Amino acid sequence: MKKIKALIVDDERLAREELKLMLKDFPEIEVIAEAKNGEEGIQFNTELRPDLIFLDVSMPGMTGFEMIKQLDEIPNVIFITAFDEFALKAFEVSALDYLLKPVEPVRLKEAIQKIEEKDDFSSEVKITPNRQNRFLTINDRVFIKDGERCWFVEISKIRKFESEGNYVKIFFDTFKPMVLRTLNSFEERLHPEDFFRASRKHLINIHWIDTVENWFNGGLLLTMKDGEKIEVSRRQAIKFKDELGF
């Protein structure tokens, strides 16, 4: 098993000690250094070239977000903070995950599994300052918060968005978080080459479609790769054929 070299950056000594103790349950993680501020974090990152940084967001002098913007080479990053209001700033980077203090063992395990699933431990975080002015693509990550749970999700993993009243349920992996947004607001941000509005209720990831069948009243029935079936209204079926047909 390849060791994942990790750097911990947190201004609280007890927080660093607690995280190191939790990481002992993950033999694949090797903590190679710990820094008490952003300046030390930059120095250790340059000298030691870790595969992963556990990075506190709120630190005196330099925040975690400011720190990674100053790195020449950026490894995978898992943000850790006691304040969930900082989570919105995570939209600026394609971080691996975002954990709230006190870190729950289950959430830590989920975050580590994400890096283990990647082929390249040293893939870089991409800073995208103009993100709000463009379509989100299948290669982007998005921050999702539902109650106390937070995720950084690859858009490619999102199978569909489903409208439920004033909320939208987002389907990815085994999760179905709900956010207070309209389905139209998601449709406006997602690239039409990747997502299609199947009906008033569903916005689906085109890449997850397995088969297409003719359905009642000129509509279509889509079978997704996870086996779920989604009906496409007659009006949207015409659009589907026009945009996705030969």
Q: Which strand-content bin applies to the residues? A: 25-35%
N- and C-termini, Cα separation = 46 Å
The CATH superfamily of the largest domain is known as Response regulator
CATH level-3 fold name of the largest domain: Rossmann fold
Judging by the overall fold, what is the CATH architecture of the largest domain?
Answer: 3-Layer(aba) Sandwich
Radius of gyration: 20 Å
Q: Which class best fits the helix and strand makeup?
A: alpha/beta
Q: Characterize the biggest β-sheet.
A: 5 strands, parallel
Beta-strand segment tally = 15
Output the strand order for the largest sheet: 2-1-3-4-5
**CATH structural class of the largest domain:** Alpha Beta
**Tally of contiguous helical segments:** 6
Element-level helix/strand string: EHEHEHEEHEEEEEHEEEEEH
Q: Low-confidence runs (pLDDT<50, min 5 residues)?
A: 119-130
Estimate percent helicity.
10-25%
Overall pLDDT:
85
Number of structural domains? 2
Shape: elongated
What's the arrangement of secondary structure elements?
Layout: E1 4-9, H1 13-23, E2 29-35, H2 38-48, E3 52-56, H3 64-69, E4 76-81, E5 97-100, H4 105-117, E6 141-146, E7 149-154, E8 158-164, E9 167-172, E10 178-179, H5 183-189, E11 195-197, E12 202-205, E13 209-214, E14 220-224, E15 229-232, H6 234-244
Parallel strand pairs: 1-2, 1-3, 3-4, 4-5
Antiparallel strand pairs: 6-7, 8-9, 8-12, 9-10, 11-12, 13-14, 14-15
